[in-house]
Prior knowledge:
Largest sheet: 5 strands, antiparallel
Structural class: mainly beta
CATH class: Mainly Beta
Helix content: under 10%
Shape: globular
Amino acid sequence: xxxxxxxxxxxxxxxxxxxxxxxxxxxxxxxxxxxxxxxxxxxxxxxxxxxxxxxxxxxxxxxxxxxxxxxxxxxxxxxxxxxxxxxxxxxxxxxxxxxxxxxxxxxxxxxxxxxxxxxxxxxxxxxxxxxxxxxxxxxxxxxxxxxxxxxxxxxxxxxxxxxxxxxxxxxxxxxxxxxxxxxxxxxxxxxxxxxxxxxxxxxxxxxxxxxxxxxxxxxxxxxxxxxxxxxxxxxxxxxxxxxxxxxxxxxxxxxxxxxxxxxxxxxxxxxxxxxxxxxxxxxxxxxxxxxxxxxxxxxxxxxxxxxxxxxxxxxxxxxxxxxxxxxxxxxxxxxxxxxxxxxxxxxxxxxxxxxxxxx
Length: 359
């Protein structure tokens, strides 16, 4: 069994000082426009910079716009999620960290010019500024991404943001990120919104996997099965690079089953139910050969089959966070971040592919 595919580039600034882009998501609007989001214009994986950045494609991902910054706080804006709602309405999500907590890491950088810029940025931060800007956020566009609402706080955070349920509400399965936390380190919880993310109501929490602490469970994602079940995946760091576990809810997210391990030996994962009924779970593979992989379910997440590589040419494990959208002809596009060559900044890349015929 093989995958018919081709690879391409959304954004690559391999040698620029603030050319690191990471942690993307993708959504397809009703008119066929693709919107990808990423944390962009960074110096490193962890740094004091990072902006909520979007890219647009009007030809099914063959070509992409230049990066458009829709949010750039004084802190570090990370993990951009994109959700297409209806017509021209689209939501962007991200979370923001206080970079002062990583000062010791930054001081080990070798470039003195970059370190001086870092010191100036951190010295300008006050506790008041940090309280104002840190947390989990949403913004909504009602015109296909041209203009955006004011940001609104959200009680949870996850890389790819919420999903649109069949009843028209938004469900966000994420890590709690209340104001007294410096990172999204709370429980994994479900929150719902009926007003495009202006307000949220937390409705339930996912039990911890057996033997795990709260700080070992991160970055969930969820999809709605045909029978109404909510099927969620969790990043669980009970090994060096983490494993993926699965949980389900049959009551709209109020209660969740005890998580169980999946046949996915890396993290984090993204779920998509294809129009054919096949469920795709894409994830970054942070073992050799490094790259992006996908596993399939033909029974709405009850069993998983055919773990296959979308790419296996990553130079190292700084990669992943793949997210997938279905195109109008039933083919697929998966976006992710990965280096094109060792020693470069990470780029936002994509793979166009089709479901295997003999799946």
